[in-house]
Amino acid sequence: MEFLQENMVWVGIAIVSGGMLLWPMVAGGNVSNLSPAEATLLMNREDALVLDVRETAEWSTGHITGARHITLGQLEKRMSELEKFKDKPIIVICASGNRSSSACGQLKKSGFAKVFSLAGGIGSWRDASLPLTTKS
Length: 136
Known about the structure:
By secondary structure, this protein is of the alpha/beta class.
């Protein structure tokens, strides 16, 4: 007990960092992550829908050609726009993978079965030297 009192700051930091590591799993449930190469294969072979949930300013800096843009904050109220894609694979993309995990959880709760998150977000796509566009 004495140790905890003397090291309260370190204990707090450990608890917060542990929570941050667990949050994507809790928020998104059991989310399947894809590498950029796996995502490309799914797009080409199964005509997967790419859903970008980043904010508009982030989207404007570059996005995957053909991606749909619905920010995470708008996803719930715009879910009806995605109904026609319920039987298709959906690859959700954000900046790093946290928001896409949350979006995948929302999609699964709405009955979408084939939902994937791009591991590492748009940064991993860029790192793989895959093309981006700034056109709408």
